[in-house]
């Protein structure tokens, strides 16, 4: 083998090493989020030991369930360097539609109600995806518009009506309070969504291509990746998961009106960013987004226990977002510097 050939062989190995190194950095970041969550729970429990009794643990899991489901869908969208601001409105529309379905047909099977809610959310996601991928309108503009459109449809449909828990089937309401091995049934939905989404992004080519699109959309397009179709798919998934979150919201709270999910989209984006998904796309994971959602939900529960003014919650979340963005930029700069150094040594 010639000298030139021996020198040309190492780059693929170095490239794989660079990828593994980048992954390790982001895994460390997610571990840091988990550590912050553990510390928060520990401090709160020391202050008030009842914070982790059986009922409190159940409430913490239920409180994070809906946010986790929404954060998983949002993370997939943000990885492609887009954003979906309509998830709160889709949740509200799906939740109210679920209640209306039970009012019209009280014997509707729960599985059918879940599928109907997911289907309505999927339809909303398809509308978003079509406008973004086909019409090539920026996702921020499209989803900001559909946020108001879907919410307007919800308010028009509700016309001031409120659906009470007494009008909902007992089996559906039990789903919102039942547990399996100490874990709320609704939380099991979130766990299933998280595991499936994580497996899809890691093991399927179409999932990995979403990272390529977020890293450099133009390069991904030149590489033959169907950028429009992948972005369309990400928006459809986000819509479907927002629809599922609406059904879970209906099961948990029972009492429904057109304001359900109002403003939650900002919490969802915050959870994704705090969870380590780069706002500029191309990096992060749904597991980190779920940790971010759990952290924000726990902060909301812990501050009153610690007798801290709830208004400080917004300040804490804002500080976490700024810290996450700063850390993301620092990690990106470190990775880029490492790559330049290895390329220089290779040359």
Automatic annotation (TrEMBL):
The chain crosses the membrane at residues 31-48, 60-79, 85-103, 110-135, 178-201, 231-251, 263-280, 287-305, 311-331. Keywords: Cell inner membrane, Cell membrane, Membrane, Transmembrane, Transmembrane helix, Transport. It is a multi-pass membrane protein. The keyword Nucleotidyltransferase does not apply. The keyword Zinc does not apply. It comes from the Bacteria. Its main location: membrane. It is found in: Cell membrane. Part of the ABC transporter complex LsrABCD involved in autoinducer 2 (AI-2) import. Probably responsible for the translocation of the substrate across the membrane. The complex is composed of two ATP-binding proteins (LsrA), two transmembrane proteins (LsrC and LsrD) and a solute-binding protein (LsrB). PANTHER family: ABC TRANSPORTER PERMEASE PROTEIN YPHD-RELATED-RELATED, AUTOINDUCER 2 IMPORT SYSTEM PERMEASE PROTEIN LSRC. This is Autoinducer 2 import system permease protein LsrC. It comes from Phytohabitans maris.
